[in-house]
Each structure stands twice: as structure tokens, then as C-alpha cells.
Amino acid sequence: MGKVRVAAIGVSMDGFAAGPDQSLENPLGVRGPELFSWFFPTKTFNDMHGSGGGTTGLDDQFAQRSFKNVGSWILGRNMFGPVRGPWPDESWKGWWGANPPYHVPTFVLTHHARAPLEMEGGTRFIFVTDGIQSALRQAQQAAGDKDVRIGGGASTIRQYLKAGLVDEMHLALMPVLMGKGENLFSGLNLHELGFKCVERVPTEQATHVVLKK
Amino acid sequence: MGKVRVAAIGVSMDGFAAGPDQSLENPLGVRGPELFSWFFPTKTFNDMHGSGGGTTGLDDQFAQRSFKNVGSWILGRNMFGPVRGPWPDESWKGWWGANPPYHVPTFVLTHHARAPLEMEGGTRFIFVTDGIQSALRQAQQAAGDKDVRIGGGASTIRQYLKAGLVDEMHLALMPVLMGKGENLFSGLNLHELGFKCVERVPTEQATHVVLKK
């Protein structure tokens, strides 16, 4: 069985992994994109979005690593979209258009049942209503020998961390003060959960850290 | 008038500027010294403690800067010592021995009056019982054209930040997970307070950031 991984999460100095007031216009919350200014210029990001070009340095190496050997994803409902409460219809199919950047089975945590969605490029969104443990079991089965990547958002990551279900986490620590938004660390004691920093790579944009148990 | 500065504060990835359970044995809280592992090897620190030697690279440059042009200090009561409540006697004279590393007037915030303490090397501890604004006024008067340095701990720094009284802050962001202790950011919105990162210097030990309004 592969690992359960969190990767490529931009975090502000004050601990926020997304800005406040997520909406259709601000999928990452207000000022959220500042947490990903290390990622957007990379070749990996530009390849995903078909624009070509991009940087190939250390930031890109971390971006690449984040997608390597991923057999399935788990996303929180808010990472899938801005719709809250029961699904009004089937029209919302994620932020990413017809061909999302996952290309593997992708489990979406929600309290509201919905039929699976088959997208272009191999992404299949499966909606899981019976909790994080069930989503992980399904994701691990789908991933086989490969890793399960917990995509986010912060609340979903915190839930998996708290339950002791995450093996490895790559964060990109950004010189940004968010002030409010989704805090990655609140209510968590990662030291007691057994995590420590096993790798630290500062670049011009970010300080990349890999945390493992 | 000089600036009001916070400097050389080690901060964990999860936002703690000191460990939990401060005591006579653990002045920086349990595991607190891990936040200062960038500072202890520097020439500046070794000069202060008379042991000689020490590194002279970027970490030392930030350590040096932190002491430059400082005309007075403000310390929270817990940074002055582990004694809580009314002073049982005059025996506690700080963590630092007969010759503390301040060498200027140093104002200690407390709810319990106490006569000033004249130490060797120019440090004079003055105990202020009427609040942070009063302490700052007295410290600025003592500093003249020089800067007032808010030494800590986290709670004292947070109070001055919240009141909008800090001009500049140097943090050393450390690849450490503290889990619990004194959080520097909790209850603060440094973005709304007008701070942004104006300088970022990663070293092997820390990512130094300077935040200004």
C-alpha cells in the first residue's frame, strides 16, 4: 500500500493555507493565490494548464514530486466547489473545467449524496457521505500500490492529521501574512502526532519543508 | 524618536515563539531552545555570554542587527522570570545573572510594584505597573533617539502589535513543530495591522523575515 500524503500546500507565516471568503471568484479565498506564487510560475503548473513554458528549478521539483505516484485523491467539499448544502443540480463539476488535473479517482467528502462524475482525462469524482475513514478506505483501494493524496482544503487536511492518518506532508512556507482564512495548524499538535521536519529547502519564493512521522 | 522594534524572535512552523510550561529549568518553555538554534551558534550570542568564537554568517548578521541602536527594552514579566503573583522578596533578579545582556534601561511589565534594580553593565530594571502604553512612553523617553526593543515574550509582543505600537519585526522562522506553547499570531491580524514582509533571507538554520508597516 502507498502512503497517505499532503503536498504542495502553501502556508502563510501566520499559518493560513487559504484566504477568507472563498467564492466562485476566489476559489482559494481572498488573497489565497499569494500562497501559491511559488507554484504558478513552475513548468509543472504550466503543463497542467496547457500554457507551456515555466520554471524548472527547485520549486518545480517540489511541484513535480507532489504529483508523482498519486493513485487517488481526496478533496474536501469546498475544494471541489463553492456550492454549500444540498446539490441544487448536477451542473457544478469542479473548478477545473472538463479535464481536471487529477486524472485518477478523486473522492470528494460531502454530507450530500451525488452520483459519480466521469470527467475527461481519467478523473472520476466520487462523492463520499460516510466520513473521512470511509473515503480513505475507498481511496486506498482505488490507488492500489500508489499513494493517496489529500488535496485539501485546510479543514480536510486537519481532520486527517488529527485522526493520525497522514504519513507525509510537504508545505511551501510563504513570506505572506494572511491575517485570516483557513488555518492549517489550529487545534492540532503536530509534534505530539509525531511529525518532524525531515527536509528543508529554501528557494527564492518559499521555504519547502517535508514533515514525516 | 527611534523605532519600536521586535527582533530575533524564533517562531515555529505552527506559530509558537516559546514552548509550554516555562519554569526555572525551562526559561524558554519546554523545547523552546529549538527556536533559537539559529542564534546560539552565532558570534553575537557567544560574545554576550563571554565564551568567544561563534559563527559570523547571515544568522549572526541578523543577531547583530537586533542589538543595534537599542536605547531601551520592554520585557513581559514572564520573560523576566518564573515568579508569578506578588514578589515574595527582592531575590529574583532575572534569568541572566549579575550582568544581563541589555546594558540599557529595561522596563518590565508587571501587576506588582517593585523598586528598580540596578545591575552590572548598565542594565537597570524598572518595573511598570500601569500598562503597556505607560511602559512604552517611559522606554521611549529613556531611549531618546534610539529604538525601543520589545523583547518578549509572545504575549507582550502580541499586546503591542494589537495596539498598533510596533514599527518593525524580525522573525527567524524555524523548521520546528512546537505543538503547544506561546503562539505569536493567535488573535492577531497582522495583514490588517498593515504589516508585510519587506525582507526575506533564508539561511541553513532559519528563514529570516523582516515585517514592516
Task: Name some characteristics of this structure.
homodimer; 213 residues; alpha/beta; Dihydrofolate Reductase, subunit A; two-stranded antiparallel sheet; 5 helices; 19% helix; 26% strand
Structural notes for this entry:
The structure is a homodimer of 213-residue chains. With 213 residues, the first copy, chain A, is of the alpha/beta class. The first copy, chain A, has a single domain, classed as Dihydrofolate Reductase, subunit A. The first copy, chain A, is built from 5 helices and 11 strands. In chain A, the strands form 2 sheets. Chain A has a 9-stranded mixed sheet, sandwiched between helices. In chain A, strands 2-9 form a two-stranded antiparallel ribbon. Chains A and B meet through strand 10 and strand 11 of A and strand 10 and strand 11 of B.
What's the SSE pattern of chain A?
EEHHEHEEEHEHEEEE
Distance between the termini of chain A: 17 Å
Q: Which regions of chain A are unreliable across 5 or more consecutive residues at pLDDT < 50?
A: none
Identify the CATH homologous superfamily of chain A: Dihydrofolate Reductase, subunit A
The percent range for helix content of chain A is: 10-25%
Radius of gyration of chain A: 16 Å
Question: Got a strand count of chain A?
Answer: 11
- Subunit arrangement of the protein: homodimer
Beta-strand fraction estimate of chain A: 25-35%
Kindly report the greatest chain-chain contact and the residue count on each side.
Answer: A-B, 27 and 27 residues
Q: What is the overall number of helices of chain A?
A: 5
> If classified by CATH, what would the architecture of chain A be?
3-Layer(aba) Sandwich
Strand order of the largest sheet of chain A: 5-6-4-3-7-1-8-11-10
Major sheet of chain A = 9 strands, mixed
CATH class of chain A: Alpha Beta
Reported by name, the CATH topology of chain A is Dihydrofolate Reductase, subunit A
How many discrete domains of chain A? Answer: 1
Q: What structural class should be given to the helix and strand makeup of chain A? A: alpha/beta
